[in-house]
Amino acid sequence: MALLDETAKGVYVIAVTPFTETGALDLDSTDRMVDFYLEKGATGLTVLGMMGEAPKLTADESRIFVRRVLKRVDGRVPVVAGVSASGFAAMRELSDSVMGDGAAGVMVAPPSTLRTDDQILSYYAMAAETLGPKTPFVLQDFPLVTQVQITPAVILKIVAAHPSCVMLKHEDWPGLAKISALRAASDQGGRRISILVGNGGMFLPEELSRGADGAMTGFAYPEMMVDVWKAHAAGQVERAHDLFDAYLPLARYEQQPGLGLALRKYTLAKRGAIASATLRKPGGALSKMDIADIERLIARQERRLKEIG
């Protein structure tokens, strides 16, 4: 598999981590999940992300899971692995493992302890050194979770200083102006990197219009992001918005803090992508009313998709 680079585009689905009813890794469901994402048109996969319950896995489980995903993908699409860690030794160990097994790149989020621009720049300099120049990495910018605010100017300095930084996972909210600023800088001669957006695709049509290259996020209907991206790339902007609007009520519902992953796993299990909706503890649990809401939203979504064709 070729390494990740600045030309990456499309939809890199943030994969869930399937568990059995007892909370053990479900590797058979891992195969089913990979097949499901690829059948829905994913151009890449990202594993061990924040919505992949990575902190709940042991180091050995992380390696086993990534290895299984890579084996099932079999080089058909790039696979990115999250390697964020509290220390650089653990980051290097996991990165060396996944890259050795065939990952296309890794993703690094900043620790919540960073407060100043200088601290952020220093951290990513050390991260780039730790990973090595031959390991491309994704800078994950998710201030709603990390509590680290990274300005466009700081991102541009990281990109200029470290050629191995090839992608920004953009999850700032609101963040449309940030995409515009980064694209304006590359239009004026700065190095252009890939920008894939997160937040469940909640602002995907607008982000694509600002210059994003696609999405790197999860949603129980990944084909929404794929179809929106394809329509937008073909110049069918209104069609992209119509498709997005049909899925928006369910996408919005799935974005609930603390409950979103349980909702996503329930729907993925309903669709046959995984055998069980189990979250490893601690994790949210759905009520009968939550499930009724999902079922209603799915029914309305299906009707709307039939109407627009």
Automatic annotation (TrEMBL):
InterPro entries tied to this protein: Aldolase_TIM, DapA-like
Keyword Aminoacyl-tRNA synthetase set for record: no
CDD domains: DHDPS-like
Keyword tags: Lyase
Binding-site residues for pyruvate, renumbered to this chain: 216
Single GO MF descriptor: 4-hydroxy-tetrahydrodipicolinate synthase activity
Signal peptide: none
Gene Ontology CC: cytosol
A Pfam short name: DHDPS
Similarity comment: family membership: Belongs to the DapA family.
Protein name: Dihydrodipicolinate synthetase
Organism: Bosea thiooxidans
Lineage: Bacteria, Pseudomonadati, Pseudomonadota, Alphaproteobacteria, Hyphomicrobiales
